[in-house]
Design a protein that fits this description.
Elements lengths: L2 E3 L8 H5 L5 E2 L13 E2 L14 H5 L6 E3 L8 H10 L6 E2 L3 E2 L15 H5 L7
Antiparallel strand pairs: 1-4, 2-3, 5-6
């Protein structure tokens, strides 16, 4: 996934249309029960690795609403699977292929963002 939207989100939905991976959904479409703000699907987020900054962060009007999360790679499979079980994430499951876990379906990520920055959920700077 690599980016996550925090409770600072004002639900303006500006980020939704900017996401090239269609990884962001409105609070009304969130797969999280009783969601309070916009949700990023971890199994779809590509961190906009082909751009200078993630496009969601570039258009977000709220400082601190979009922060870094761990890379969606096999190394962090347990992190995401535990988050899925705890309700932090709701990772999509395919009828035949099973859950789109980081082990099964890793995503590109920005190697320039350190694991320490990701663990601290530092704001995505533009």
């Amino acid at each position: 996934m690599s980016v996550i939207i925090t409770d600072l989100c004002i639900n303006c939905d500006t980020c939704i249309d900017e996401c090239p991976a269609t990884a962001i959904v409105s609070v009304d479409d969130s797969p999280i029960i009783d969601a309070d703000y916009v949700y990023v699907k971890p199994e779809k987020c590509i961190e906009c690795v082909d751009a200078s900054v993630p496009k969601c962060a570039y258009v977000c009007p709220t400082e601190g609403a979009i922060v870094w999360d761990m890379p969606y790679t096999a190394e962090f499979n347990d992190y995401y699977m535990q988050g899925h079980e705890d309700g932090k994430y709701n990772i999509r499951t395919h009828k035949k292929l099973g859950i789109f876990s980081p082990e099964n379906k890793p995503k590109p990520f920005r190697e320039s963002i350190s694991i320490e920055q990701r663990e601290a959920q530092m704001e995505v700077a533009i």
